[in-house]
Amino acid sequence: MIFWLQKYYFQIQIKMLIIFKPAVLFDKINELNWYKNTLHQWIDDHNFPIKSKVLEVGCATGALTSYIAKLGYIPKGVDSSNKMIELAKTNNSNIDFSIANVLDLPFENNCFDVVIAASLINIVPEKSKAIYELTRTCKKGGMITILVPSAKFNDENLRSLQASVGDSGFSVAAMRAWHKLAPKIKMSDISDLFKEAGMIKITTKNYLQGMVISVSAIKPF
Predict the structure, then answer these.
(1) Residue 53 domain boundaries
(2) Which strands sit side by side in the sheet containing 112-118, from one edge to the other?
(3) What is the CATH number of the domain that holds 134?
């Protein structure tokens, strides 16, 4: 009985945060090991050159941007939410954050060595326009990498993942909410968007037992 009460308590808590305080929710999720470690592994796997100028689009409260800075890169974080950027600046006063929409990024062409976006392309209606802006702001020879929830991940996969992670309470409820509520996308759909944008050397990778996928590509010279 207590277990079920706790389960519903955390589910309701997450729903309330989504409605009234999404920035606080993102800040809490960024501290969960399964989420934080996935984002860190995604960045580590690419091994960008030191001092690379990295644009993170959809940076939310800046947790990943902070990790990027610690690795020796030069990050710039943008998000369309004023509340997210306010909290990002509070959490990381030494990092450059600003408000910007992925469909109209306020940067010149070929500005950044690397452009990244986590859990963003899957929620943007105009995906081709978003990919165009990511590629436009990336330098020739630079990399764009995207991380999104996978369309192949199902309820059975979720139960297996939750059992392997071994977390409880808010962590498990957050994982379930992300699986149930976040729009998902096929790996092939992102690859096709990259091809349409003229990108080359497209590579893919699975994380969290296939719950999320990354698609990366190089902007040709």
Answers:
(1) 2-218
(2) 96-99, 74-79, 53-57, 112-118, 138-149, 212-218, 200-207
(3) 3.40.50.150
Q: 0.70 exceeded by the pTM?
A: yes
DSSP annotation string for 72-117? T-EEEEEES-HHHHHHHHHH-TTSEEEE-BTTB-SS-TT-EEEEEE
Separation CA 55–CA 75 (nearest Å): 6
Q: At which residue do the structure tokens 């050159």 appear?
A: 49
Q: Which residues in 150-211 belong to E strands, given as ranges?
A: 200-207
Measured distance CA(28)–CA(120) in Å, rounded: 18
Residue 110, token pair as written in the block: 């070929």
pLDDT tens sequence across 178-202: 899 899 999 999 999 999 999 999 9
Give the number of domains in the chain: 1
Phi, psi of 183 (to 5 degrees): -60, 145
Of 85, 143, 149, nearest to 115 by C-alpha is 143
